[in-house]
TrEMBL record:
InterPro entries: ADH-like_C, ADH-like_N, ADH_Zn_CS, ER, GroES-like_sf, NAD(P)-bd_dom_sf. Residues 10-360 form the Enoyl reductase (ER) domain. It holds the Pfam family ADH_zinc_N. Keywords: Metal-binding, Oxidoreductase, Zinc. It comes from Thermus thermamylovorans. Belongs to the zinc-containing alcohol dehydrogenase family. One of its GO terms (molecular function) is oxidoreductase activity. This is Alcohol dehydrogenase. PROSITE patterns: ADH_ZINC.
Length: 366
């Protein structure tokens, strides 16, 4: 099969022919239809997030079941599926508590070492040397995924567009759930890329009003309005505009979806007293955002970190929202690239040229 390989940090992704992986017990082989282009992968490419190389990135996939490992009975070959970037082991302390977004094995095995939960990768070169897997290593024609992270796609949903349910919309859903958002609460979304646009959609679905989008690019603000933002502002006008919209108080919930200290502080400063700020964006390692302790204490502010949703509990609910047309995965997809242009896709993302969400199209399962 073909795979996009990152040989070393800072180098371009290169297409290689590698052996098709085989699923082990409790795993599924997916023929990949599409893989979303996420900023977290870009952090790895740039060396801002540590990850072993050579590796195959890509953690946001849709496709069809190509083979089932021993013990997997609830799925069938040929079934259209989607997978989330968090792959729960189902057995650790946090998974057993229903907190799969904190899965110990996912972080210690996959995110630190690039392997699955028997301690080995499923991807190898023809000479037998290993290729490490970022989640399932979705920038390839086939990917092995734990069965705990495979979800059948509802009938009628476009397979390629469904890929972004696995991270952009999955992360957004987790953020909104972490916030405990209630109908009628006011919301601001700072940075409206793929995840930010997902938060806009899901916040509206949860009944928030107003939903204020904040970004530096006019085309992203326009996109946010088409997906449910009731108001959209540049940063320099947003603070006063939010005060005007909320009777001078600020929003109930502010989401930060970029992972930079200045946007972190900006989102925090949009809150009313007693409000909640949910940072979602991943920052380069070591980056800190300082907080004024007295304001945090006196004004009873809450900062609630959110990495993603809980796959087995939340992905079925997210799929129902998409099936009902309450949120639209396809509405976020603005750019498509073939696998041969995977590196170009991340270049474009790095330049800020992707308005919504880009996907790398591999075609598996059409």
């Amino acid at each position: 099969m073909r795979a996009a390989v990152l040989e070393r940090v800072g180098e371009p992704l290169r297409i290689e022919e590698v052996p098709i992986p085989e699923p082990k017990a409790g795993e599924v082989l997916v023929r990949v239809a599409a893989c979303g282009v996420c900023h977290t992968d870009l952090h790895v490419i740039k060396g801002e997030v540590a990850f072993p190389t050579p590796c195959v990135l890509g953690h946001e996939i849709s496709g069809t079941v190509a083979a089932l490992g021993p013990g997997v009975e609830a799925l069938r070959v040929g079934e259209k599926v989607v997978a989330s970037f968090i792959m729960p082991c189902g057995q650790c302390y946090y998974c057993l508590r229903g907190e799969e977004d904190l899965c110990e094995r996912f972080f210690s095995y996959n995110r630190l070492r690039g392997v699955l939960y028997d301690g080995s990768t499923r991807l190898y070169r023809k000479d037998g040397s290993p290729l490490w897997m970022y989640s399932m290593g979705g920038l390839a024609e086939y990917a092995v995924v734990p069965a705990t992270d495979i979800f059948p796609l509802p009938e009628g949903m476009a397979l390629e567009e469904a890929a972004i349910l696995g991270c952009a919309l999955f992360t957004a859903y987790g953020a909104v759930k972490t916030a405990g958002l209630e109908g009628g609460e006011s919301v601001a979304v700072v940075a409206t890329g793929g995840v930010g646009l997902g938060i806009v959609q899901i916040a509206r679905a949860f009944g928030a009003y107003p939903v204020v989008a904040v970004d530096v690019r006019p085309e992203k603000l326009e996109k946010a309005k088409t997906l449910g933002a009731t108001h959209a502002f540049f940063p320099q006008e947003a603070t006063q505009a939010v005060r005007d919209l909320t009777g001078g108080r600020g929003v109930d919930v502010a989401f930060e979806a970029l992972g930079k200290p200045d946007t972190f502080h900006f989102a925090l400063n949009l809150l009313r007293d007693g409000g909640r700020m949910v940072p979602v964006g991943i920052a380069p390692q070591g980056v800190e955002a300082r907080v004024e302790i007295t304001r945090l204490v006196r004004r009873k502010l809450k900062i609630l970190g959110s990495y993603g949703a809980r796959p087995r509990r939340d992905m079925p609910a997210l799929l129902k929202l998409a099936q009902a047309g309450i949120i639209g995965a396809g509405a976020e997809v603005t750019d498509r690239f073939p696998l041969e242009e995977a590196d170009l896709a991340y270049q474009r993302l790095n330049e800020g040229a992707i308005v919504g969400r880009a996907v790398v199209v591999l075609g598996g399962g059409k």
